[in-house]
Amino acid sequence: MVQPAADASPEPGPASPRSGDTWFGHPRQLARLFTTEMWERFGFYGMRALLTLYLAEHFLFNDSTTTGLYGGFTALVYLTPLVGGLIADRYLGSKRSVKFGAILMALGYFTLCFGGETAKPYAVIDGQRYEVQVDKASETKQQYVIDGDRRLAIKGNEDGTVSLLGAGGAVERTVQKGGFEAGGERSHFYTMLMLIALSMITVGNGFFKPNISTMVGSLYAPGDRRRDAGFTIFYMGINLGSLFSQLLCPWLSVAVGWWAGFGLAAVGMLFSWSLIQFDGGRLAGYGEPPEQSGPDRSLLIYFCSIVAIPLVWFLFVNLMNAPAPKEGAGIVGYLLALPLMGKLLFGTFIVAVPAILAWSWKVGTKVEFQMMLAACVLIIFNVVFWTLFEQAGSSLTLFANRNTDLSVFGWFTMTAGQTQFFNAFFIVALAPFFSMLWTGLAKRGLEPSIPVKFGVALAGVGLGFLALVWGAQYAGADFKVTLWWLALLYLIHSMAELCISPVGLSMITKLSIARIVGMMMGLWFLSISVAQYVAGMVAQVASVETVGGQVTNLKVSLDTYVGVFWTIGLVSIGIGVLLVLVSPLIKKWMHGVQ
Prior knowledge:
Blueprint: E1 22-23, E2 26-27, H1 29-57, H2 63-92, H3 94-112, E3 120-125, E4 128-134, E5 143-147, E6 150-156, E7 162-165, E8 171-175, E9 180-185, H4 188-217, H5 227-255, H6 258-277, H7 298-321, H8 330-336, H9 340-363, H10 366-389, H11 395-403, E10 404-405, E11 407-408, E12 412-413, H12 421-443, H13 450-472, E13 481-482, H14 483-511, H15 517-541, E14 546-547, E15 550-551, H16 554-590
Parallel strand pairs: 10-13
Antiparallel strand pairs: 1-2, 3-4, 3-9, 4-5, 5-6, 6-7, 7-8, 11-12, 14-15
Helix pairs in contact: 1-2, 1-5, 1-6, 2-3, 2-4, 2-7, 2-15, 3-4, 3-6, 4-7, 5-6, 5-12, 9-10, 9-15, 10-13, 10-14, 10-15, 10-16, 11-16, 12-14, 13-14, 13-16, 14-15
């Protein structure tokens, strides 16, 4: 997420660096923290670019399990920083928290390198189990059922039946809908190891993510006008790190193996840790532990954090094994069927929003309540935006893998994981333009209000999906869309992100009652966590039948994705238009906050 640029000219004051001791007019320590964040994001986004494909093609999980697990993982990644930030503020300090989190994340990435052998595909047809082979040398990666000495090609049909084709393509058997079940014979040990790795990354991220930003803030004295510009530079490290890792890690996973892609992510994380661990005293006095009375609790905190890893692992296992809701059970039955992680996230969010508003009504003035009401309304719309935007790591990655021609002008072919690089590239390229745009419009009194920017972002993310649906009309005979339609979606989504991401956190600090700014910030991150979880649920709707990690019918796959993307595109545009229409009322509640 990139924040808008601000006036970067240094001012004299308590935090002004000595002459010759600056980095582009900022405290020299910013360079080290910038590089630390860049390498951490290099590792995280490199791992994220591989995760969905790793689950689907190495462990052979079906689409529903793959996207659900991905959504649960990213949800916890956004939730744990709430705890990690609190622990750092009260006990560890930011610097020790960042180092501990970096170690845990690096260990998690290294653990992902040990995935064992690829799961062996099989199919259960009318109650009888058959071996499945996948011809990965062929362009279509055709799957075959092994029936004695015969190899029968598998073809999924639009009506849900499955045809088994003999030599010459003749249909030898048709399996009725529901009679064909694909699976993978995978190692329980390596599955457990993979979930432990994700749990380590989740806990480690909770310590690292909030506290590296806190250290950047500590470089500037209150009122220092360089602060916003410093954070803009710092956040550029996020996109630079992700830009390169989303190219290199997927390439290594294909050229060498999954372990190499995850291994490079781990190396990047170790670079990040080393910059803080071996700072040569350059960060002395920044991010130090608060003064405490009594014994040092750091070892106890480290121990409890390690103990938390199996608890997170349990949430992942519960998520994977949750039963599907019964048909006709309604919304109550659906909520009761949610896994424990879903109940915790939805329950907390559904209770927190009205509780905070009720408290604001009771203790605040009418103006304060209306400002809080505006903040909560925008937080709810924020859930919708990130739910759809975060299809990038799940359904859009699978779409790139299955229904996208990844050739770049015939010069070379990208991997599906590398397509996520488009977002980071467009953010880096467009952020300066958007910063100048908002500044220029503000000077003329034409800058859109915060609710209008949110509405434009929601409409934009929907428009991106509709653009891809439009491009699907021009799919070739192989039912694949050219890469540039997917790039167009990411261009539109990146522009939408720049309308909402830079203003969100600032909006919360300006609209919240001073006594509960921290709680409102927590609610903001909780909304993103809920959005990540819901994003996994939306991606599950786009699930298609796979055998051996490959779809059985590319036409069915394309039609499924197009149907889901069309629906969520229209819904998102509709919600965005609704928000723009009610924006005058929300702006009135904001009482002049810009």
